[in-house]
């Protein structure tokens, strides 16, 4: 069969479904990308059909015998035909937008109780609808886990199937090749202004103060990509303007990592190469009256910038500024207390324009220029100037610099140098991952990691040490393109892509856990002398070579496998054959197995056995001592932090994961002695591993260290310590996945209870395959150690207790109920559903009752908060944080309060000014990147935190009006005790109703003048 798919059809949409179906049916090699018709297919009889639906139907009816069993159920039902038509008629490119929205709702409802559209397996129906949704505008704009939870779950699951992932990549590659042939940008089509073939010059300017991480890799790859795309020039320029932080070690490592990424600079330079030129330009700025030397302290300077005040030095004469700058240049005691500032606009709403510092003193010897200089330019001043000098035509940098773009342009104009075009792209951010060099350095300094190449670090060296291939890393980053859309990415896709790279080439090996290892012997009648045999290292890739496997009448089995065996049972020993269990000798206390006796049945049908077990030979040939098993230590890791996204105001120390490395002692097969450091292997039924420390013949009893490589499935990438809120929809876990650590939430000062959940919530949170409950059926906490995970006890507080289905008494129980009910079901039962109420009993009933009628203790908790109306008097950008504002807010007191908020991504400066808002004012003041915040602004946020807006007090509100909750009035505390976690306990119940009214546990936010509301967001959380 021949299948032709157009990467850019003249009508219709790209036939993703056809490409995915072909991959599923092992017809991937039959697909070519060309032409302008969505899809055509020609079968063996030379009959040709055109159109996505027609080709899918042809694939359905002509599937090979090998794949018939996969989709046979589809052929037997007309439901598949219905969904094929549905995909074309209701989800196709010609469908009206409102009609598409209705179709999405229909799909969402259909999938509420189903994993697939038809039957219990993926079918052409799923593939057709998935393919249609890939190019559906309504789906892209309106579908989300909050709006269409069941559809989003299904779509995410399909996205991770190998055939769908392959189709997405194949289409993207075809489009990219087509665009390259046409001379445009393809998926990188961002419209570079004035870009001419052969004349584009880009640059990557890393500071040699740390190791290259995955975020830097994106910047480097994108700048390199556009330089190559236009046959231009790519410059790597080390921004070495701060000798206190920079080291040759970092510069060398960045150079090596760029080479590993396949990035080769046409020119390598340093900002220090241009120090003389930059210094000359700074003198000219002083002479033109565009810069002045300020002797204010750093604290005074910061305060004046925040208050939009001019420095006392701003209008000094040129001669005095030149004299002062000369003192700075000499590094004299007088000069050391000064800084050169650009004279721009101290009243600007953009903090970057408020007379920024452009030169400062530093007596630390420079790693390239030594002690020649005592003053150094700032990055913000040097970067635009050197870009212009070096001939850079397009400066591509991440969006964190967007507010500085106008400053960049100002310097170019003030210095009267050549203009440079700019483009901002989104940063690459991953959940549970820090990309701030300052925060990463903190982990190194505290000894929480082994160094910058630690396998838990997001540095290029760290993720390589974890087993990430450069091929997968490069391909994944380029797949992100140059988009400006900010995303908080899961790790699943990049590790899935990595698995596709390593699976075909990873040799297969065996390792057995040493704990309670079970001995096995073949009964006398089948006894034989141990021997070795050459077998393939990879059954599907003979080019990898062979390994020696020892077969012996004395064997080892892993205890977790052995404990489930039954006398008389027939099982398969992998890569050998079937055996029959004759006898099992348990210890008296059933804690271990002394011996298992087996009979060989090597000709038995392995398809009929349920258990396929890995094993190792205990006895070895006398003349081959090198075939003895070798000691192996398996290492698995957790994320360094327990929170998906660390905000600017968060203290990293509060979210450090207690235990991040887990080890398991094993015996490994003898062939592991031949592995080298950095090799990637697969341990049968355990997963992929990379060799971090190879076998050393000088120390034969030292273990080989193997690091577990995540494969993209949920068990391999989920946080082991974070609260149970995984959102990754993954491929069903197979036997090769490592044992998963069970979660336990750390709750301080409160008991823990398993709250009653609705059926709909269970549907949303459960994966698309059967999984074991986190706390077991009896609501017991998991063991603190076991299998691959060694987890410190989470629940050690005196009040920590498990609330069972029995009676609940005492204050600890009340605290437990309150804690449990702070995370209520996503779809609570209607108040009139009496049948459901009757069914509730035990702890579930108590938890439900707690939701309906808050206790007096809860009432006292909510009354402790001091929430008042406030008015924003002034607002400015935080001087040291790109996502924060600093506001002065009138809360009805003698002086306004300084408040730092993370609203910069959501609300403009103009949208902040003079707003009447709600403020929680009795939190303990906290320093946020050097500025102390004395209150918190309360806002409504949608589920995925892409929309945030102020809460709106009732008309006529004035600063100081207090918010209260009817029936729960009380006197607020002067200042909340952070250790009591009052805010953390109350906030999860702050929401907006469908009528936009703000509520706590269905009790309205009120002032004396009326109700508090959100502006546009119903069902939003309030934080």
From TrEMBL:
Its main location: cytoplasm. It is found in: Cytoplasm. Keywords: Aminoacyl-tRNA synthetase, ATP-binding, Cytoplasm, Ligase, Nucleotide-binding, Phosphoprotein, Protein biosynthesis, RNA-binding, tRNA-binding. It is an enzyme of class 6 (ligase). It catalyses: tRNA(Glu) + L-glutamate + ATP = L-glutamyl-tRNA(Glu) + AMP + diphosphate. It comes from the Eukaryota. The keyword Protein biosynthesis applies. InterPro entries: aa-tRNA-synth_I_CS, Gln/Glu-tRNA_Ligase, Glu-tRNA-synth_arc/euk, Glu/Gln-tRNA-synth, Glu/Gln-tRNA-synth_Ib_cat-dom, Glu/Gln-tRNA-synth_Ib_codon-bd, Glutathione-S-Trfase_C-like, Glutathione-S-Trfase_C_sf. Residues 861-964 form the TRNA-binding domain. Its EC number is 6.1.1.17. One of its GO terms (biological process) is glutamyl-tRNA aminoacylation. Residues 57-178 form the GST C-terminal domain. Belongs to the class-I aminoacyl-tRNA synthetase family. Glutamate--tRNA ligase type 2 subfamily. HAMAP family: Glu_tRNA_synth_type2. NCBIfam families: gltX_arch (TIGR00463). This is Probable glutamate--tRNA ligase, cytoplasmic. It comes from Physocladia obscura.
């Amino acid at each position: 069969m021949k299948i032709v798919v157009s990467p850019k059809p003249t009508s219709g949409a790209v036939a993703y479904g056809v490409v995915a179906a072909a991959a599923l049916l092992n017809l991937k090699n039959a697909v070519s990308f060309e032409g302008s018709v969505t899809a055509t297919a020609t079968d063996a009889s030379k009959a040709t059909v055109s159109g996505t639906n027609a080709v899918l139907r042809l694939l359905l009816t002509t599937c090979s015998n090998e794949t018939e069993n996969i989709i046979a159920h589809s052929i037997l039902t007309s439901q598949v035909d219905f969904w094929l038509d549905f995909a074309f008629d209701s989800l196709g490119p010609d469908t009206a937008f409102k009609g598409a929205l209705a179709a999405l709702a229909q799909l969402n409802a259909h999938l509420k109780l189903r994993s697939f559209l038809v039957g219990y397996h993926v079918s052409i129906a799923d593939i057709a609808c998935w393919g249609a949704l890939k190019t559906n505008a309504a789906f892209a704009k309106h579908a989300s886990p909050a709006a269409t939870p069941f559809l989003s779950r299904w779509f995410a699951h399909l996205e991770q199937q190998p055939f769908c992932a392959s189709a997405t990549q194949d289409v993207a590659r075809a489009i990219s090749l087509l665009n390259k042939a046409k001379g445009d940008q393809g998926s990188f089509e961002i419209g570079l202004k004035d870009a001419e073939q052969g004349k584009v010059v880009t640059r990557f300017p890393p500071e040699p103060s740390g190791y290259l991480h995955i975020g830097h890799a994106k910047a480097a790859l994108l700048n390199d990509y556009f330089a190559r795309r236009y046959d231009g020039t790519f410059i790597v320029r080390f921004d070495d303007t701060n000798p206190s932080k920079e080291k040759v070690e970092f510069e060398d490592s960045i150079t090596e990592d760029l080479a590993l990424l396949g990035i080769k600079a046409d020119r390598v330079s340093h900002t220090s190469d241009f120090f003389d030129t930059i210094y000359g330009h700074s003198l000219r700025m002083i002479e033109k009256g565009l810069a002045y030397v300020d002797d204010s302290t750093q604290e005074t300077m910061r305060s004046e910038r925040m208050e939009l005040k001019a420095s006392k030095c701003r209008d000094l004469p040129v001669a005095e500024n030149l004299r002062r700058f000369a003192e700075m240049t000499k590094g004299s005691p007088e000069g050391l207390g000064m800084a050169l500032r650009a004279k721009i606009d101290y009243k600007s709403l953009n903090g970057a324009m408020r007379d920024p510092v452009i030169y400062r003193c530093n007596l630390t010897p420079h790693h390239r220029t030594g002690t020649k200089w005592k003053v150094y330019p700032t990055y913000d001043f040097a970067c635009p100037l050197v870009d212009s000098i070096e001939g850079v035509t397009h400066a591509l940098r991440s969006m964190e610099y967007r507010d500085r773009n106008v400053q960049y342009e100002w310097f170019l104009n003030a210095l009267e140098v050549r203009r440079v075009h700019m483009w901002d792209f989104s940063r690459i951010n991953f959940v549970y991952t820090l990309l701030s060099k300052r925060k990463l350095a903190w982990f190194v300094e505290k000894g929480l990691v082994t160094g910058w190449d630690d396998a838990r670090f997001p540095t290029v060296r760290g993720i390589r040490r974890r087993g990430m291939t450069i091929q997968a890393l490069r391909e994944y980053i380029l797949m992100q393109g140059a988009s400006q859309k900010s995303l908080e990415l899961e790790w699943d896709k990049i590790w899935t892509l990595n698995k596709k790279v390593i699976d075909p080439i990873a040799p297969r090996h065996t390792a057995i856990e040493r704990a309670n290892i079970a001995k096995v012997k073949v009964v006398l009648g089948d006894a034989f002398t141990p021997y070795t045999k050459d077998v393939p290292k990879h059954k599907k890739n003979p080019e990898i070579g062979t390994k020696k496997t020892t077969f012996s009448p004395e064997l080892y089995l892993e205890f977790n496998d052995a404990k489930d065996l039954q006398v008389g049972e027939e099982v398969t020993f992998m890569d050998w054959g079937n055996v029959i269990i004759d006898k099992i000798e348990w210890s008296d206390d059933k804690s271990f197995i002394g011996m298992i006796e087996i009979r060989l049945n090597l000709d038995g049908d392995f398809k009929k056995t349920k258990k396929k077990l890995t094993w190792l030979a205990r006895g070895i040939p006398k003349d081959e001592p090198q075939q003895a098993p070798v000691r192996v230590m398996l290492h698995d890791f957790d994320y360094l932090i327990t929170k998906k996204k660390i905000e600017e105001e968060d203290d990293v120390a509060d979210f450090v994961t207690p235990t991040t490395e887990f080890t398991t002692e094993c015996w490994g097969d003898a062939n592991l002695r031949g592995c080298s450091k950095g090799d990637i292997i697969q341990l049968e039924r355990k997963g992929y591993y990379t060799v971090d420390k190879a076998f050393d013949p000088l120390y034969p009893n030292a273990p080989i260290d193997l690091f577990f490589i995540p494969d993209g499935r949920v068990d391999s990438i989920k946080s082991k310590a974070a609260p149970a809120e995984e959102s990754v929809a993954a491929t069903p876990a197979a036997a090769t996945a490592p044992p998963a650590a069970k979660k336990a939430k750390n709750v301080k000062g409160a008991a823990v209870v398993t709250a009653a959940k609705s059926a709909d919530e269970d549907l949303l949170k459960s994966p698309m395959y059967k999984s074991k409950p986190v706390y077991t059926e009896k609501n017991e906490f998991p063991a603190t150690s076991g299998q691959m995970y060694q987890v410190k006890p989470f629940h050690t507080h005196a009040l920590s207790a498990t609330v069972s289905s029995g009676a609940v008494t005492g204050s600890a129980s009340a605290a437990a109920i309150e804690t449990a009910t702070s995370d209520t079901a996503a779809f609570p039962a209607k108040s009139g559903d009496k049948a459901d109420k009757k069914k509730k009993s035990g702890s579930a009933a108590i938890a439900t009752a707690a939701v309906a009628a808050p206790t007096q203790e809860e009432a006292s908790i909510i009354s402790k908060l001091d929430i008042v109306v406030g008015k924003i008097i002034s607002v400015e950008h935080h001087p040291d944080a790109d996502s924060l504002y600093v506001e002065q807010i009138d809360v009805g007191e003698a002086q306004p309060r300084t408040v730092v908020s993370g609203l910069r991504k959501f609300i403009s400066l103009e949208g902040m000014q003079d707003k009447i808002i709600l403020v929680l004012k009795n939190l303990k003041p906290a320093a946020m990147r050097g500025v102390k915040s004395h209150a918190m602004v309360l806002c409504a946020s949608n589920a995925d935190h892409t929309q945030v807006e102020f809460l709106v007090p009732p008309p006529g509100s004035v600063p100081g009006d207090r918010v209260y909750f009817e029936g729960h009035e009380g006197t607020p505390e002067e200042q909340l005790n952070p250790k009591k976690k009052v805010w953390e306990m109350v906030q999860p119940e702050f929401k907006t109703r469908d009528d936009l009214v703000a509520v706590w546990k269905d009790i309205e936010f009120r002032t004396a003048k009326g109700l508090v509301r959100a502006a546009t967001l119903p069902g939003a959380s309030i934080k």
